Amino acid sequence: MQNLNVYFHQYINPHREIDDGAFEIHGLSNEFLADKPEFADIAQDLINFIKDSELIIHNAPFDIGFLNMELGRMGLSNVEDHIEKVTDSLVMARELRPGQRNNLDALCRAYKVDNSKRSQHGALLDAQLLSEVYLNMTRGQEDIAINFSQDEKKLNLGKVNQNQLKVVHANEEDISSHEAYLEKIQTKSSW
Predict the structure, then answer these.
(1) Secondary structure (H, E, C), the chain
(2) Comparing C-alpha atoms, which of 119, 121, 102 is closest to residue 111?
(3) How far apart are CA 129 and CA 139, in angstroms?
(4) Is 119 left (phi over 0), alpha (psi -120 to 50) or beta?
(5) Which residues are the active-site residues?
(6) Chain center to CA of 68
(7) Are residues 5 and 49 in contact, defined by beta-carbon separation less than 8 angstroms?
């Protein structure tokens, strides 16, 4: 049986001083990171872990930019060359919640994800929280895994009997309510 890692987590020695502002955000000190490996030491393990997968990243251009810079320093190809695709959960959140705060803390509140253990930014905890938020943003999906054990023939996928569909048209009250809601969204998004 193959042993599959559920997550990849590695602290990296940046070989530069951690400024006070960064320390306030993540709480990682120069002393803590001093004996950690360099990015070059773990890069291939990271590439192997993400190979052919979809990465779900909040504000993806920020993280992908740093990863690509480090990979480029080593003469390796960009992250995008090793994976299937990148999904930016910040873009999704902005589409689902226009005009609202969409940082991870705000999304945890909106989707009722417990982030009480998050006092600072930490990659592993943030990834766990983002996975719960992402599942909620994708309309209540229960799990990221897909169960292929069901017999697809029994599911009758893609066949819809048009006679079984019931079309309900909006009445004037529904239309008026919808227009008022859209106006409210427009007002909030122009703050």
Answers:
(1) CCCCCCCCCCCCCCCCCCCHHHHHHHCCCHHHHCCCCCHHHHHHHHHHHHCCCEEEECCHHHHHHHHHHHHHHCCCCCHHHCCCEEEEHHHHHHHHCCCCCCCHHHHHHHCCCCCCCCCCCCHHHHHHHHHHHHHHHCCCCCCCCCCCCCCHHHHCCCCCCHHHCCCCCCCHHHHHHHHHHHHHHHHHHCC
(2) 102
(3) 16
(4) alpha
(5) 121
(6) 18
(7) yes
* Residue 81: both structure tokens together: 């060359």
12 dihedral zone (left: phi>0; alpha: psi -120 to 50; beta): beta
pTM score, whole prediction? 0.66
Selection from 158, 137, 131, 125 nearest residue 94 by Cα: 137
Can you read off the two tokens belonging to residue 171?
């009445």
Q: What is the pLDDT of residues 16-50, one digit of tens each?
A: 898 888 888 788 888 999 999 999 999 999 999 99
Chain centroid offset of residue 135 CA: 9
